[in-house]
Amino acid sequence: MGVGIPKQYLLLCGKTILEHTLHKISQVENLSGIVLVLDANDQYWPTLNCNSIPNLHVVNGGASRAQSVKNGLSYIAKQIANNTANNTGQDQEVKVLVHDAARPCVNVKNIETLVASCEQANQGGILAAPVADTVKRAVEQGEAPAVQATVDRSLLWLAHTPQYFELHCLLNALNHCEQAGLEVTDEASAIEQTGGQVLLVADGKDNIKITLPEDMLVAEAILANQLKQGT
C-alpha cells in the first residue's frame, strides 16, 4: 500500500478497515465468537475501541496466512477441549468462518447464505465471484509477457472470503500442507490438496480485498453506499 502502517488500520468512512470488518462479522447470525489474529508486535490494535463487539478473542499470528489461521483455529480447538473437560460444553462438530480483515465490504446476508448453502450440501464452501473478464494465459517474451492463449472463463471463479469449514477438518488440512511443503493461498486450497470438495457460493463483486492504493477509493464508495442503506 506504500504507507507506514498496516493497511487494516487505514481509515474508511471515519473508521479503520479492521473496525468495519469486525462490525460486519459480528452481525452474522448464530456466531459464537470472533478470533482476531494479529501480529504479536501490533502497536495499533490497543488504540482502537472494539469493546462493544461480543466474544472477541485476540491471538498472535504467524509468519504466513496459513500459520496465522492455524493459530486461530488451534485457539478455538483448545477452548473447546477445555470446555468439554470441564463439562461446560459438548464434544461436537464446530464450524468456522475464516475472513480477511482487508475485506470490509462483505455483505452479511451473503455470509449467511454461504453458511446455509454449506449446511444444506453438508460440505465446506467459500464465497466467490464468477470471472466476467476475458482471461489470457501469458508466456514470457523478452522484457514483457505476451498472450499465449485465451482461457475458457466459463468455469473460472474468483475466491473471496469468508470461507466456511469444519474446524478440525480445516486444521488437519493446514497441518498436512505444512508438513508436505504444499503452498496454501487460502483455506479452500488446503482442503482441495487433501482431497476435499469445496462448494462455490456466489458473492457480489463489491466484496473487494483492499490490496492496492486505488482499492481504497472503491472501498470508500462501496462502504458509504452500504452505510447509507444500512447494510
From TrEMBL:
The keyword Phosphoprotein does not apply. GO terms for biological process: isopentenyl diphosphate biosynthetic process, methylerythritol 4-phosphate pathway. It holds the Pfam family IspD. GO terms for molecular function: 2-C-methyl-D-erythritol 4-phosphate cytidylyltransferase activity. It is an enzyme of class 2 (transferase). It catalyses: 2-C-methyl-D-erythritol 4-phosphate + CTP + H(+) = 4-CDP-2-C-methyl-D-erythritol + diphosphate. Its EC number is 2.7.7.60. Gene3D superfamilies: Spore Coat Polysaccharide Biosynthesis Protein SpsA, Chain A (3.90.550.10). It comes from the Bacteria. Pathway: Isoprenoid biosynthesis; isopentenyl diphosphate biosynthesis via DXP pathway; isopentenyl diphosphate from 1-deoxy-D-xylulose 5-phosphate: step 2/6. Keywords: Isoprene biosynthesis, Nucleotidyltransferase, Transferase. The keyword NAD does not apply. InterPro entries: IspD, IspD/TarI, IspD/TarI_cytidylyltransf_bact, ISPD_synthase_CS, Nucleotide-diphossugar_trans. Belongs to the IspD/TarI cytidylyltransferase family. IspD subfamily. This is 2-C-methyl-D-erythritol 4-phosphate cytidylyltransferase. It comes from Saccharophagus degradans (strain 2-40 / ATCC 43961 / DSM 17024).
